[in-house]
Specification:
- This protein is part of the stalk that links CF(0) to CF(1). It either transmits conformational changes from CF(0) to CF(1) or is implicated in proton conduction.
- This protein is of the alpha+beta class.
- It has 2 domains: 97 residues, Peroxidase, domain 1, CATH 1.10.520; 73 residues, no CATH class.
- It is 60% helix and 16% strand.
- The protein contains 8 helices and 4 strands.
- Strands 2-1-3-4 form a 4-stranded mixed β-sheet, with helices on both faces.
- The model has no long low-confidence stretch (mean pLDDT 89).
């Protein structure tokens, strides 16, 4: 769940990235940073440790993420200064949503009993994208045998459930009362 603080930082970063026309690059950098943090929890411990000065922490960030866009590095340094390092993951998530909205895209999770083909993903993207007012959906396919058949599509707060399991459940409720 994104925090209000992370949303504010993400919005400011997004506006700056939009102005400099580097939204895709910043988004990619943030994804890589989050992956790095998830695989190296020691880095967060180091960045939140009171043993090191903020200047030393900023120096570490500048060295570790030297290939990242400068506005991303500056944002990380600001998070260190404001003692908000724990918000990096939420900031990246919020930024990704802002970037997707600006491109007329949204993330969707499709639950099915088997892996979907590229053609099926494209069909789901175009038909469900129209329902939520997006041009394109970025689909993550989750295999879930318990649905028996059909698909369940989740786009943000919207859930479209056309699974055999849900139809059987509705039938059961109708018959039992």
């Amino acid at each position: 769940m994104s925090s209000t603080i992370a949303n504010r930082y993400a919005d400011a970063l997004f506006q700056l990235a939009l102005e400099k026309q580097v939204v895709a690059e910043v988004n990619a950098d943030l994804e890589e940073i989050v992956k790095g943090i998830e695989t190296t929890p020691e880095l967060v411990s180091l960045l939140t440790s009171p043993k090191f000065s903020n200047e030393r922490k900023k120096q570490i960030i500048a060295e570790v993420f030297a290939s990242a866009n400068p506005i991303v590095v500056n944002t990380l340094e600001l998070l260190i200064e404001k003692k908000r390092v724990d918000e990096i993951g939420n900031l990246a998530k919020s930024f990704k949503q802002l970037a997707a909205e600006a491109q007329g895209s949204a993330d969707a999770t499709v639950f099915s009993t088997r892996a979907l083909t590229d053609q099926e993903k494209d069909e789901i993207s175009s038909s469900f994208g129209k329902l939520v007012g997006k041009e394109k959906l970025t689909i993550t396919n989750v295999i879930e045998p318990s649905i028996l058949g059909g698909v369940r599509v989740q786009i943000g707060n919207y859930i479209f459930d056309n699974t055999v399991a849900s139809k059987l459940d509705n039938l059961k409720r109708t018959l039992v009362g």
